[in-house]
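FAQ: What does the model actually see?

It sees only this:
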Amino acid sequence: MLSDEFAAAPEHFYAGLRERTPVHYEPAIDSYFLSRHQDVKRVLTDHDAFTTEMFQVRAEPVMRGRVLAQMTGAEHTAKRKIVVRGFTGSALQDQIRAIHTNAAELMAPFLPQGRVDLVNDFGKPFAVHAALDVLGLDRADWQQVAGWHAGVAEFVTSLALTPERRRHCLDCAERLDAYLAPVIRQRRSRPGEDLISKLCTAEFDGVTMSDRDVTALIINVLIAAAEPADKTIALLFKHLIDHPGQMAQVRRDPDLLAPAIAETLRFTPPVQLIPRQTQESAVFAGTTVPAGATVFCMIGAANRDPDAFADPDAFDIHRPDLGTARSFTAAAQHLAFGAGLHQCVGAAFARAEIETVAALLLPLLDEVRYSPGFRYRETGLYTRGPVSLSLDFTPVHASGTRRG
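And it is asked to produce this:
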């Protein structure tokens, strides 16, 4: 699991893991890895037997407090509801308009050139911009915030950190905390319609949340909103370019865009690993995992389990066993957003975000293809996505007409 070969192409190992070692132990990090869909779903939906206690070590130091994944009962229900309110209803409609405007502005300089790196030129800045818009933070600060966010995300998603990288991540968290402190003070005294204002003014058990609680939830939302978007947008285009027949169908029928996104999430989920801790010893496929052990749910492997999906290693937007309508809800068959109590709080937002951007880009990127000499590469064990995606397309004049 920690080898260079696995890092280069984890999907080549999924079938062997599921069939021969569905409970794989990694002594270097004293952790167990589960690869079968039924085992992963069991762990993610039984939150009494498989807890999120490891986040006290894996997340709290950089989140500056407890995150939603650590909460249960009334506290989790109340605080999740506050966050979800910032991602749904009229708030979501306002965000969709901002997402469209933001995406169009970011893409505009590349249209006359007929070339864009969909990850680094577009996806990464777009994802951070969108998260800042939801929170009501200044877009002008996006590069600074993106740098701090990267350090926080590295801490949470690394399986092994050197002391130097650990110090860097903690420094990023401190700087982000210092940046947010005056914003929180200002929103408490003059709240607006943004999510930070909602967090600052909401009450739990009749008491408003502390600055520490609010900071942790802001950073929680920042990671949840920014992390999947840039990867999934790039992966969607990669898979459609690799399957030109399906690309042509999506271009002809906009209703196929949602199933194309759902299949992208199943086929190449941006979050590959979700950790849990066993309360008591548990048996999977005849192997006993001891109490107090860290268990990593392998989302990528579970999403390609033939017991859950027919022909799982094929990308197919017409897949009958996916169920697009439920693919962005807690009833999803794929596990890209997790499952159960701690299913991703931003799933509906992610769908709206990716659909809005893809619907904008598809007609603009006419005859889209890989740039000459481009070599595709993915990185990441915990979260995974393309390093870059250099694309050529028919250039567009400022007037909107095409050249060439």
